[in-house]
Structure formats: structure tokens, C-alpha cells
Amino acid sequence: MAELNLLLFGPPGAGKGTQADRLQADFSLPFISTGDMLRANVKDGTELGQQAKQYMDAGDLVPDELIVAMAAERLREQDARDGFILDGFPRNLEQAKALDEQLSELRRHVTAALLIDVSDDEVVRRISGRRVCVKAGHNYHVEFDPPKREGVCDQDGSRLVQRDDDKDEVVRKRLEVYHEQTEPLVEYYDEQGVMRRIDGTRSPADVHDHIRAVIATLRLEEDV
Ligand code: AP5
User: Fold this and answer.
1) Angle 203-138-87 (CA atoms, 0-180°, nearest 5)?
2) What confidence tens digit (pLDDT) does each residue in 160-196 have?
3) Catalytic residue among 39, 53, 91, 131
4) Which of 4, 17, 64, 184 could be joined to 83 by an S-S link, Cβ 3.0–4.6 Å?
5) What predicted TM-score, i.e. pTM, was given to this entire model?
6) Structural domain spans, the chain
7) Smallest CA separation from ligand 1 atom 39, residue
8) Distance 130 CA to ligand 1 centre (A)
């Protein structure tokens, strides 16, 4: 298989970032998270960050005109030439079409859209215990995936905090937005034959094994 262009899908808190960290190490592919890119812009106080913050804090999607150009520019970078793991983009039909157009101009296509499936109740349990490091946003859970030293990131030693948009009422809004705007993409990628469903209710290690098995099968199918 020449390249792996992977999309990670699922509701907020499904474990997309957790799995992306592991997959990035497996396949040496760049991990591109529009959420992380936006949070970096907010932290740096850029114009984009200032515009995006109000939508993120409310649990709404940031307008397409701000996101599509940012994602397109990142995908054109050299390190994404042989593949990528895209997390959080596309998030609605307009973004999916924009991504398809960009890839087809480059004679590329989405290899697989991996849906990490968990219930809304599980999302709330996971997000309430999530902690992220201030330096690079590495993910932990106080109960399900704790760091070795409480409050300290295993990977870079920085402090662990709760995300601004992880408050209960914002999480409920993010779930609503997911069901209304992002979930229809399951059908969109099903029709393209690239949708793969992953049971996200199992442990992070089991979910990781399942995704690796799916990718191995895709590679075998491509070689046949
Ligand atoms: P974004 O950062 O993309 O957030 P999200 O999609 O809501 O997803 P999360 O990062 O909350 O969850 P995750 O699935 O990565 O779960 P995680 O691995 O952390 O977007 C944030 C905001 O930015 C949006 O609301 C929007 O405003 C804006 N935005 C971003 N992209 C946009 C776009 N394209 N268009 C418009 N706006 C955009 O796991 C969660 C917790 O569970 C962790 O604590 C983890 O340790 C734990 N956990 C993970 N896996 C398991 C497991 N298997 N079992 C038990 N616990 C687990």
C-alpha cells in the first residue's frame, strides 16, 4: 500500500487522540488534529485562536471558512505526503467534500475512516476524568489511563489539567453537535466503502489492537 490516509471519527471523548498517539508511533505518520491546532492558536493568542475560542468554549463547531484552509495547508506539508492520521476533520459534509476535492487534486484518496464507537454515557464518564498536559496535550484519564505520577505527564513531565471545554454543559452541547453534524459522515464514508467501525468501549490497548488489525487487513486487500 503506497500511503495510509486515515481519518479518526467518533464522538467527543471516544478515544481518538488516545489512539492517534499510539498509531503515530506504529506507522510513523503525522498526527493532524484540528482540535489541537485550534488550541495551539488559542494559547498563542493568534487571530484565528481569538476567533475560534468563543465557538470552542460553547461546544460549537468553528466556522468552515476558518477550518478548511487551516487543514488544507497542513495536509500540503511535506511530512503528510506519504499519509496522515487526521483527527477531528472533517466534521460535517462541507468539510468532507472539501477534503475529497483537495485529495483528488493530488490524486489521493481516504484509505479508511475509522469510527471509534462509544455511547453518550461513556463519553460523559471519560471526559469528566480526562486530564491533558499543558505542554503538548497528551491525554490521560484519572481512572482508566492514569499517568505514572499523579498530575504529571509521562511523556514530557509537564502539568496535567482539565480542558476548558470539558465542563458538563459544554460536553452535552458537543455531543449534540456530533450527532447532528458529524454522524451523517458515517453514511458518506460507508458509500465510499472506506468506513470501518471499531468498538471503542474496550480498553485503550484492545481498541489499538483492533485498529491495527483493520489496517493490516486493508493492506492485505490492497496487495491481492
Ligand atoms: P477536538 O479537540 O477534536 O475534540 P473532540 O472531537 O470533542 O474529541 P476529544 O479530543 O474531546 O476526545 P477524543 O476522542 O480525542 O478522546 P480522548 O482520546 O481524549 O475538538 C474540540 C473543539 O474544536 C470542537 O468542539 C470544535 O469547537 C473545534 N473543532 C475541532 N475540529 C473542528 C472542525 N474540523 N470543524 C469545526 N470545529 C472544530 O479520550 C477521552 C478520555 O477517555 C481520556 O481521558 C482518555 O484517557 C480516556 N480514554 C480513551 N480511550 C479509552 C478507553 N478505551 N477506555 C477508557 N478510557 C479511555
Assistant:
1) 75
2) 999 989 988 899 999 999 999 999 999 999 999 999 9
3) 91
4) 4
5) 0.91
6) 4-30+77-119+172-223
7) 15
8) 10
